[in-house]
Design goal:
With about 600 residues, the chain is α+β, with helices and mostly antiparallel strands. The protein is about 40% helix and about 10% strand. Helix 4 packs across helix 6, helix 14 packs across helix 16 and helix 14 crosses helix 19.
Amino acid sequence: MGLGRQIAVFTVIQAALAVGITWGLHAADRAFPPPLEQAAERSREVLDADDRLLRAFTTRDGKWRLSVKAAEVDPQYLKMLVAYEDQRFYAHDGVDLIAMGRAAFQLATHGRIVSGASTLSMQVARLIEPRTDRSIGAKLLQMARAVQIERRLSKAQILDLYLNLAPYGGNLEGIRSASLAYFGKEPRRLAIGQAALLVALPQLPERRRPDRFPQFAEAARQRVLDRLAVATVIGEGEADRAHLAAIPKKRLALPSLAAHLTEAALRKAPKEISHKTTLKRDIQQALEAVALEAATRLGPRLSVAIVMADAKTGAIVGEVGSANYLDASRYGWIDQTRILRSPGSTLKPFIYGLAFEQGVIAQQTIIEDRPADFSGYRPKNFDMSYQGDVTIRQALQMSLNVPAVRLLDIVGPTRLSVRFRRAGIKTVLPTDEAPGLAIALGGVGITLHDLVQLYAGLANRGQPVRIGDGIHEDPKILDGAPVIEMSAAWQVSDILSGMRPPLGAIDRGIAYKTGTSYGYRDAWTVGYDGRYVLGVWVGRADNAAVPGLSGFKSAAPIVFEAFAKSKVAFTPFPSAPAGALRLAESELPVGLRRFSLTR
């Protein structure tokens, strides 16, 4: 056989072998793909309106594995990670042959391992397919998996997997979990020392846990800072400054806010990993602290619920279902914002609003506060006394019962119920009963959530607002007829904003109304300014009576404290609309000077 023919045959054989090997590798790759699906599980999260973490839940195997992408991590940390772990990460195909050669040479010349050759892709392969076996065979499989991963994923996706799966000690996995647990913050902005520690921990996560072995954690951090490639990335002198930073000595609890609302989010969409809410985390945290402190101060078995909403958008910005979710003595697991209760006197402003709207009263109109009989219904005041002749302004501010019933008798309970429906809320009457005069004093069932929604319409100059549920029901301004016409809403707000604050509270200029249900079972206060509405309920979850409980003494101070600690800026009330006047008694038409003359 001639030389040319031999070369041709050899070339054909080589090509056939190459095709066979390629096909074999491709077939093996398809037959034994990397178990990437094992890396997909993440902790379920509930986020606030600004994507800040409110609460998270561990995975099925008990791990904190919070979702994160490289774009959400400090860029300096990413540069340090690549510089320390895998300098040619963006150049190799999963296995760094240059690093392997260097490691082998150092092992031969030093007699020990000086540096490893594991790439970030190989580390991801080990994380998605953990093995205790450290044999050569296991290492070769890890390398093969790394090549498979590189074929399937982009470098950005591989980096994202590492950032989500890297171990940081205990049940912490992923840089976001670690940053929150050790530094109490998201990893978007990290100090150099913090970034160096997070680079070092995944190599020996249990041995280097800063909350248990701070000396080992500090030494590991220093090795990262001393690496020449890292020093080049962070700049001259930064390593020395970072070394002075203290190592965190304890592990922090991850955020655990809005327990009732987060549970509701999970029930409504159990398969979703991330749940967005309308809450604001700082406000939510402040309201929970206020509720817990107030319940502790008020006494055992009492609970506190709070709802705060933006009347301009309808968004719930804070919601506390109970003072302490884990307190069994207060039935803390019950979401008191959604429980029907008697609202006491909190509905009176809407009776007055209808009376203003119909033109039968003005603020300085005189109305009688004396014993009266309405076809057998004889309302009495809270303190069992009567004030005689009072102005409409005084009657509402003092929450006198007889004047409110007199007005409801004129405007009509049915008309009032229609206005509630305009606000998008549902009130519940006793079985087989039609709307009656008892509504004025709390003879109807309503939830704190709906009461805040009703007041949001009042704060929004009479235009109804749907505050949603904080999760999936979108808040919005409702189209259609107003709850109360704008000029009447201004009159009511003007009266309520002139009330003196509770003893010791700072006068913020907010309008507020209190209420106490029959038998001292529920204490209410709803307060609002030109933008925010905040409602508070105080009582026992078992509906037991609490002697001495009242809206003014028990709930009103909480409203003022919650407004202050939420740190929302006070929004002034809008100016009076055309035709809305506060006239002196002498300026009133004769027919408006005394209510009894207008009947």
